[in-house]
Amino acid sequence: MSVTSPVSTTAVRATGIWKVFNEGQANEVTALQDINLTVEAGEFISLIGPSGCGKSTLLRVIADLTHPTKGSAEVAGMSAADARQQQRYGMAFQQAALFDWRTVRRNVELPLELQGWSKSARAARAMELLEMVQLADFAGHRPWELSGGMQQRVAIARSLAVDPPLLLMDEPFGALDEMTRERMQNELLRIRQETGKSVIFVTHSIPEAVYLSDRVVVMSPRPGRITDIIDVNLGSRDEDTREAEAFFAGVTAVREALRGRTGGSAARARVGEV
Amino acid sequence: MSGRLRAVWPPVLIALIFLSAWQLLVVVQDIKPFLLPSPSLILGNFFGDFTLMFNAAIYTGTTAILGLMFGTAVGLVLALAAQRFGVVNKLITPLAAGLAAVPIIALTPILNNMFNITSRTPKVIITMIIVFFPVFVNVTRGLIQVQPVQLELMRSMNARPRTVLRQLRIPNAIPFFFTALKIAAPLSVIAALVSEYFGGPQQGLGSRIASSAANTAYGRAWAYVVASIITGLIFYLIVLAVERWAAPWTGRARSA
């Protein structure tokens, strides 16, 4: 792929992004300060940091849901606006945001419907995706009949519907209980393995960020900025990974980076040594 | 079926107890019919003059349905305009609230003079104005009060405003619309009925209640009241049935 089109090796490139709310007023807030970030194709990146660090705002800038005050975001080699218009990313939120008036299958079909797919083609594609998230049996159900975890799986299937190269996920498992959450993490890693998507994943949870990511981007508030980027190299994950020493080392490294300690480097050096 | 029976029998039982107590009170205390007729007298009149009752209900019901339809249509159109254009919302909402505060039924004599008193038109207009308000207010809310995350989702999928309206705002407003109709439908019967008190054709429920009472036929006056209650209830039940059919997701636990 990189031979034919060199830009496609970069999934996302954020260059000098600033986002200032209420600029020039007394309640001015710098949500993002000079953010530079490159996400390679196929990479899984987590954005982590305390509330108000701008991680969701950064995701929204990349998704072209809000405009940066300064700087620019590129997705798949094009401007964020073009990428949104051409559906080069799929998005999932903390709330599943399913439409109660549609069945599970027709919720997954929604992005395809907006793209003008034929009825039979989108039904087939939706069923394929529901099988991937193991909800094919619930295709005819209404969203409210499903548990929180199942609803979130429908939302993920929907975000994959147009087969975008990039997934943007804003705390998608934030409202789930711990057990469901771990299951969903494995599910997400499996889907990502099967589809080869790049992922940007916003989370509050340190273990979640370490378990899922190739790199953890640590952010800090007032003003929102990137303070550290930690490489995680755990190889292929399974349930044992959660108890592996390298996993704990990663958790420690991220935790120390969040506290703003430079001493995180010692812990960081151990990440990936199994 | 047994579940439905279980839901039905408590109110039926209470109604029977209430009617029995009423009957007993009238008989034992020997209350005169002009004060309070007994249920047996009322029901005797109701079934005895059933054709009269039925025709009166059809006349008033037709006025109510026409007013309900036109009032709903105007409410829906203005709600769409209010959602689309903020200016319209700011202009209409206070006006609509002002209109709701006007004792509209009292305007009937004026409308009777403006239009032909023998026609149905003044009563339909009164009903329409009364129906308009709950429909407009509720539907506007339903169109505007959409989950922010659902709007972001639509934007992330590059949906045009018209698509957002069709796929998100209108379905979102449907439960609000039926809430409005459940208020407006029985209200339309009351409005149509009361507007008959101010003259015009005499075949409606309101006219019949007034003339029966004036002729000291109290049992029959109350029988017409029963017919009015049944008409209002039928309106309500029709709305309920249409809601079940058209919007089966309403009344359920809403997803987060």
TrEMBL record, chain A:
Any Pfam family the entry gives: ABC_tran
Nucleotide-binding among keywords: yes
The keyword Nucleotide-binding is annotated on this UniProt entry: yes
Keywords recorded for this protein, A-Z: ATP-binding, Nucleotide-binding, Transport
MF (Gene Ontology): ATP binding; ATP hydrolysis activity
CDD domains documented for this protein: ABC_NrtD_SsuB_transporters
Domain ABC transporter: 12-246
Gene3D superfamilies: P-loop containing nucleotide triphosphate hydrolases
Identification of the protein by name: Unannotated protein
Organism: freshwater metagenome
From TrEMBL, chain B:
Gene Ontology CC terms, in alphabetical order: plasma membrane
Domain ABC transmembrane type-1: 53-239
GO biological process assignments: transmembrane transport
This protein's record includes keyword Transmembrane helix: yes
Subcellular location, record wording: Cell membrane
Membrane topology: Multi-pass membrane protein
Gene3D superfamilies in alphabetical order: MetI-like
Chain ranges passing through the membrane: 7-28, 56-79, 91-112, 124-144, 170-194, 221-242
Keywords for this protein: Cell membrane, Membrane, Transmembrane, Transmembrane helix, Transport
Matches recorded under Pfam families: BPD_transp_1
Protein name per its UniProtKB record: Unannotated protein
